[in-house]
Amino acid sequence: MNEPRLALIKDMPRVLELIQELATYEKEADAVEITMSDLENDGFGSNPKFICFVCEVKNKIEGIALVYPRYSTWKGEILHLEDLIVSEKCRGKGIGTQLLDVVVKYGQQRGVKRISWDVLDWNEPAINFYESKGADVKRDWNVVHLDEQGIKNYLNQL
């Protein structure tokens, strides 16, 4: 297993495969709308919208961590970990720890005041993993989304 590294544009096909694998695991296989073009355009160029770290096993990417900056009115700059994904066949081999390590180091280098992410309430293996690393899983907070249709519906009511 190699140390995590920054993703390259040529890694995006495998990154998209892992995103789809996670969606299937989370029982949302049909929810992935992002395309290869989206990942390539949004993650690379003069103003990338995200940073992606990858971890390889035997020259194949088996884990990713995708992050982007956010701003907290209480804390200042924070880092959001959108997804930490390890392929099902490689879970339990330390890849998740390596990826979380690199994300935390990256956040510290940026000087962020917090690193935040979401985890599904039924995903006990992930919750246990994060808590074992010292993360505070906020069970009293609810995630709120307005999806694309929700945005349209909201605006139509104005």
Protein model, in words:
- The protein has helices at 12-25, 36-43, 95-110, 124-132, 148-156; strands at residues 5-6, 51-57, 60-72, 76-86, 114-116.
- A hairpin with a 2-residue loop joins β2 and β3.
- Helix content is 35%, strand content 23%.
- With 158 residues, the chain is of the alpha+beta class.
- It has 5 helices and 5 strands; from the N terminus they run βααβββαβαα.
- The chain has a 5-stranded mixed β-sheet.
- The longest helix is centred in the middle third of the chain and has 16 residues, at 95-110.
How do the helices and strands line up, and which of them pair or pack?
Blueprint lengths: L4 E2 L5 H14 L10 H8 L7 E7 L2 E13 L3 E11 L8 H16 L3 E3 L7 H9 L15 H9 L2
Parallel strand pairs: 4-5
Antiparallel strand pairs: 1-2, 2-3, 3-4
Q: How are the strands of the biggest sheet laid out side by side?
A: 1-2-3-4-5
Annotation, overall tally of beta strands: 5
Strand count, sense and barrel status of the largest sheet are: 5 strands, mixed
Structural class designation: alpha+beta
**Average of per-residue pLDDT values:** 96
Strand content: 15-25%
Categorize the overall geometry: globular
- CA distance, first residue to last residue: 53 Å
How much helix is in the residues?
25-40%
Radius of gyration: 16 Å
Q: Segments where pLDDT lies below 50 for 5+ residues?
A: none
Number of helices: 5
Reading the helices and strands in chain order gives EHHEEEHEHH
